[in-house]
Amino acid sequence: MQDALVIFTPSGKRGRFPLGTPVLTAARQLGVDLDSVCGGRGICSKCQITPGQGAFSKHGVTVAEGALSAWNAVEQRYHDKRGLKPGRRLGCQAQVMGDVVIDVPAESQVHRQVVRKAASARTVKMDPATRLYLVEVAEPDMHEPSGDLERLATALRTQWDIPEISAGLEVLRKLQPALRAGGWQVTVAVHADHGPGPQRILDIWPGFYEGGLYGLAIDLGSTTIAAHLCDLRTGEVVMSSGVMNPQIRFGEDLMSRVSYAMMNPGGDVEMTRAVREGLDGLIAALSEEAQVSAREIFEAVIVCNPGMHHLLLGVDPVELGQAPFALATSGALTLEARELDLAAVNPAARAYLLPCIAGHVGADAAAVALSEAPETSEDLVLVIDVGTNAEILLGDRRRVLACSSPTGPAFEGAQISSGQRAAPGAIERVEIAPVTREPRFRVIGCELWSDDPGFDAAIAATGITGICGSGIIEAVAEMRMAGLVDASGLIGSADATGSWRCQPEGRTHAYLIHDGTAAGGPRITVTQGDIRAIQLAKSALYAGARLLMDEIGTDRVDRVVLAGAFGAHISPKHAMVLGMIPDAPLDKVTSAGNAAGTGARIALCSRAARAGIEATVGRIHKVETAIEPRFQEHFVNANALPHAVDPFPELERVVPLPDVSFNTGGSAGDGGRRRRRRG
Ligand code: FES
Question: How confident is the model over 616-630, as pLDDT tens digits?
Answer without folding.
Answer: 999 999 988 877 889
